[in-house]
Design goal:
Elements (H helix, E strand, L loop, with lengths): L2 H11 L6 H20 L2 H19 L1 H18 L1 E2 L8 E2 H20 L8 H20 L3 H25 L3 H29 L6 H10 L7 H4 L11 H21 L3 H20 L3 H17 L4 H21 L6 H7 L2 H19 L9 H14 L14 H34 L6 H22 L6 H20 L13 H8 L5
Antiparallel strand pairs: 1-2
Length: 512
């Protein structure tokens, strides 16, 4: 226990005052090391030190912690969880990081007088949605704690990510850092998903094949219905989330390849575009294919100079994929089987019919989240006595219909208003920078293409449980609004005064 003495002696020799925080930190380390030596519990010491390191890092550098979340969350959201005793919420990576980021932001507000960007229409719509969720849990939930935590993970964390990104990531370079991180994420997702897809290799794997793949995955938790069906899921629990995230990253890679002037960065990105595109295909998810395709088409529409070449390349690629799909054997190819199967479509149509019928009976307040709305849907399925009832999965497979059934028309209006307002913000950013198009201008276009992917998933899938997909979308929306604030002096509050030069460059049309 000589560490504090050494630190204090060194400081006194330099004539510098010893900071109490340094003494406390070094003393704490000394105590932990001493306990580890006495009890032979190095593993727990490593865990504690890692946790303390994350806490100090995130609180001291909340913006960097957001980037850490962006890079690590696909894996950490699924596998970095710490169960706590009954009655206490589990510690998950998403909950911990967003809590620490906001702790750092609030400390800056309390100690340095910083202010958050004033709330606008999108924040008011978010607040309305949160209020509806809170009332629903308080008045109708059979398990308020569980439902509140699910609402927090599915709906509130994305909102907190939006607000944090809007207030912290205000430098133009943050956009390029985000795009670069996304491409890196796309690479490891593609390698993971490709390993899964090629390792399974059939639409009807044997039990031994599925078990063998699970073992080769290192015993990590995987989605049995999707992975067992021959579809790549990566580190996620769903091929839908894997494919839709890969589609968003594919569009990000295309934007970097076209609009970033860095030769090395452009070369690397162009090289990995086929790898990420393969991940989209290996997800064997039609909603992902449709969303990614439409997103790239919108990207081509935005750029008049490259429109002909991009649409020509997209058309050639589409024809090649169509020919390949026709030539594949449906007995051994998941992609061919997924492209040609009509059973999921029939199940969706049936659930749309059920959802609209029960929503019409309670249009204002809905039935409540989760089990309450699902019970109402199953009762309607039984009442229909349809021969196709066994095709209906019990989920609405449409986030807008699901929101209407669960929270009524007011919940649906709040959710739609959020999406409309973030899209309007991106369009506004492009309009303001139309006379000097730089990477910020093109990033707004990238976000609009991302919105296409996200909305298509919402029309065909219940997206709230897809934590990383929701988080990425709202994080990108926060970046767009941060840049919009930067070029709107009347809306800007200097939460990070050091970025003033960046704001000046934007207003004068300087380089991004």
């Amino acid at each position: 226990m000589l560490f504090p003495h050494v630190v204090m002696s060194s400081a006194m020799q330099r004539g510098a005052p010893v900071k109490p925080a340094n003494v406390i930190a070094v003393t704490a380390v000394g105590v932990l090391v001493s306990l580890a030596l006495i009890t032979d519990s190095w593993f727990y010491l490593i865990l504690v030190m890692a946790a303390l390191g994350l806490v100090m890092f995130a609180v001291a550098h909340p913006r960097l912690a957001l980037f850490l979340w962006l890079f690590v969350a696909p894996i950490a959201n699924e596998y970095a969880k710490l169960p706590l005793p009954v009655g206490l919420p589990d510690l998950t990576f998403g909950r911990v990081v967003i809590g620490l980021v906001w702790t750092g932001m609030l400390l800056r507000m309390a100690l340095k007088g910083r202010r958050l960007v004033p709330f606008g229409g999108v924040e008011l719509a978010m607040l309305a949605l949160v209020a509806i969720m809170v009332l629903d849990v308080m008045m109708r939930s059979g398990n308020p704690t569980s439902d509140a935590l699910q609402n927090f993970d599915e709906r509130i964390i994305p909102i907190l990510l939006f607000l944090a990104a809007r207030n912290l990531c205000v430098r133009p370079i943050d956009l390029k850092v985000t795009a670069g991180i996304l491409v890196a994420v796309g690479c490891y997702l593609a390698l993971h998903g490709g390993y899964q897809y090629l390792g399974l290799g059939s639409t009807n794997p044997t039990i031994e094949e599925t078990e063998d793949l699970t073992v080769r995955e290192g015993g990590m938790r995987v989605n049995e219905s999707h992975l067992g069906g021959g579809r790549a899921v990566g580190p996620f629990l769903s091929a839908v989330e894997f494919g839709s995230v890969a589609a968003i990253i594919l569009i990000a890679a295309l934007y970097i390849a076209i609009y970033v002037n860095d030769g090395v960065g452009r070369f690397v990105t162009v090289a990995v575009v086929p790898l990420i595109a393969t991940a989209v295909v290996f997800s064997a998810t039609r909603s992902t294919w449709i969303g990614g395709y439409l997103g790239i088409v919108l990207m081509a529409v935005f750029d008049r100079r490259l429109r002909t070449r991009m649409l020509t390349a997209l058309g050639i690629t589409s024809v090649a994929l169509l020919i390949a799909a026709v030539m594949l054997n449906p007995e051994t190819s998941t992609i061919r089987e997924r492209a040609s199967s009509t059973e999921p479509i029939e199940g969706r149509l049936l659930m749309y019919e059920v959802g609209l019928k029960i929503a019409a009976r309670s249009p204002l307040t809905g039935y409540g989240r989760g089990a309450l709305s699902r019970i109402a849907a199953r009762q309607e399925l039984f009442a229909l006595s349809s021969p196709d009832a066994d095709l209906a999965p019990g989920q609405f497979h449409n986030v807008f219909l699901m929101t209407l059934v669960e929270w009524g028309i007011f919940g649906l209006l709040a959710y739609v208003a959020i999406l409309v307002l973030v899209v309007k913000g991106a369009l506004d950013l492009r309009r303001r920078l139309a006379d000097r198009p730089n990477f910020i201008y093109h990033f707004a276009g990238f976000f609009l293409s991302t919105a296409v992917v996200f909305v298509v998933q919402g029309l065909l899938v219940d997206t709230p449980p897809l934590f990383y997909l929701n988080g990425v979308f709202f994080f990108l929306a926060g970046l767009v609004f941060a840049q919009l604030d930067a070029i709107s002096p009347e809306r800007h509050t200097a939460f990070e005064p050091a970025y003033g030069s960046a704001f000046s460059a934007l207003r004068t049309g300087g380089p991004a």
